[in-house]
Input
Amino acid sequence: MPLSPEQIDRLARLARVALSPQEREDARDKLNRVLGLIDQMRAVDTTGVEPMSHAVAEEAGGGQRLRADEVTEPDRREAFQAVAPAVEEGLYLVPKVIE
Amino acid sequence: MLGATLGELAAALARGETSSVELTQGCLDRIARWNGPLNAFITLDPERSLREAREADARRAAGRAGPLTGIPVAHKDIFCTRGMRTTCGSRMLGNFVSPYDAHVIERFAAAGCVLLGKTNMDEFAMGSSNENSHFGPVRNPWDTARVPGGSSGGSAAAVAARLAPAATGTDTGGSIRQPAAFTGICGLKPTYGTVSRYGMVAFASSLDQGGPMARSAEDLALLMNVMAGHDRRDSTSVERAPEDYASQLKAPLEGLRVGLPREYFAEGCAPDVLLRVREAIAWFESRGARLVELELPRSPLAVPVYYVLAPAEASSNLSRFDGVRYGHRASDYRDLADLYSRSRAEGFGAEVKRRILVGTYVLSHGYYDAYYLQAQKVRRLIARDFVAAFERCDVLMGPVAPSTAFPIGANADDPVQMYLNDIFTIPASLAGVPALSIPCGFDAAGLPVGLQLTGPHFAEARLLGLAHHYQQATDWHRRVPAHTPL
Output
C-alpha cells in the first residue's frame, strides 16, 4: 500500500529530518517506488530460517568478539570537543530543554 | 612512468630509478591538469604530500623501506584522516577534521605510502554514479559526459586517469567493483571483516568493507598486504594469521572449476557486456579451466533485501549526526528537536534523506518483522546459495554490472533503476564473500567492461592469482583513457 503524505510526515518526524513541501512530494513518489521493489522479498517462505544479522564467516568465529570491560582509551575530551559546533567549559551547548 | 603499475613503480623506487618526491610531484602535476574536468578529488594538500614523500625517500636512504614505501595513494574521503578534512561527500561533514586516523590510514602511513589526497564519492557512500556528492559529480575519464560509477567514483576516476597509481575504496553493495568496471581498472571487495572499519564512516555496518583499487591484480595484492589485518577496535575484524595476498599469483590454472551463475547471464544485461565477459571466460577455459553452469536461485531477491537492510542500518548509523557533537548545525532553530531536524535537513542530501526514511519505515513498529527480520532471513538463504555453489566450483565468473558507464543524469528520476546497477554485486556483499572486478574489454562505444570473480570466504589470494594470469595474456588493464593521455 503506497505511503500517504501523513505517513511521510510521521517518518520524517521519527527520523528528525525536516522536509520542505516539494521534498515531501518527491520523497513520497520515490519511497513508494522503493517499497514496490522491496515488497518482492516479502512473499519468500522463510519458515525456520535464522535471521542473518552479520556477515562474519563461520570459520572466523561466526560472531562478534566481546572484550573485557576495561578502560582502554585515554581521555581526549578536548580533541573531540574541538570539532563540536558549540561547547563551553567542556559541555556541549544545546537549546534550553527545561523551562 | 605514471602509466606503470604499482609493482613496477615499487621496483623503480627500489632500484633508485625514481624517488617518491618525483612520483608524488608527477601525480600532483597530473591532478593539477585533470582534476578540474574530472572532479575526482575533494581535498588536496600538496605540501603535506611532498613532505611525506621526502620522509619516504629518507626512510629508503636509511635502508628501512618496505615494499610500497614512497608510493602515493589516494584515499576515499570516507576514511578519517587527522589534519585533513573528511567529508564523506556530505555537507554534514563539510568542515569535519577527524581527531584520529582510520586503521587503513594508519596502515598506509606505517608502510611509508604518501597520502595524495581525499577522493570524491557519493554522499555517505550511497549511490552508484557519484552524482550524489555534495561536491559535485565525478566524470568518467573514458567519456566525461558519463558517470564513473559509485560510490568510490573519485578513486576509480583518479586511478583510471593516472592521477594516482592506487586508491582505497569501500564497498557496501558494489561501491568498489562497479566503479572499477566503469573506468577500466581493478577493484577488490575483500571478505567481510578482513579490512578494519575503524575510522571508516559507517553506512551499513554489516556490509561495509574497505578494499583496494588499482591497475592490476598484482597491485591489488600489494595493497591488500598493507590494508588487511586484525584490529581490535573493530568488533567484526577477523583474527587470522597475516597472509601474503601475492602468494598465489603464479598458482596454476589447470583443474580450475569456473561456476557460471545462470542468473548473471539472464536478459537485462547489455549484449556487449555479455560478449566481453564470455570471451574472458573462454580464455580461462582455453587454459584448462572447466566451466560449470549452476544457479544462485535467490540472487534475484538480493536487491530488494539490500534495500531493506542497508537503509535500516544507515538510518541507525546516521542518527549520530545531531548538530551537537560534530558536523553541520543549523543556524536557526526553535528548540532541541528543531535543531536536530533542521541540522539534518540542511546537512544531508536528497538520496541520504530518502534512505534514512526507508530505514526508519522498515524498522518502525508494525513493520519490523515483515521487512527487517524477513530481509535478514532471506539474506541467509542468499548466503547459503553461495555455499552450495562453491561445493561445485572454485570461482564464480560473470559481469560486474548490467551495462557500461551511463550518461550523467540518466537514472536521476528513478531510484529503483539506479539501484538495479548493483544487481550482480549485491549478492556477494550480502554473503560476505570476496569479489573482484577486472577489465575485460570494451563495448561498441569504447567504454570499459568489467569481469567479476567471486570466491569463497578468504579466497582473495586465489582470485587475485586467477586475475593475474589473465592480465599476463591481455592488456585491457593497461589501456589509458583517450581523454586523459599520458
Remarks:
- Chain A has a mean pLDDT of 90.
- The helical segments of chain A are 5-14, 21-38, 77-81.
- The domain at 1-43 of chain A is CATH 1.10.20.60 (Histone, subunit A).
- The longest strand of chain A covers residues 87-88.
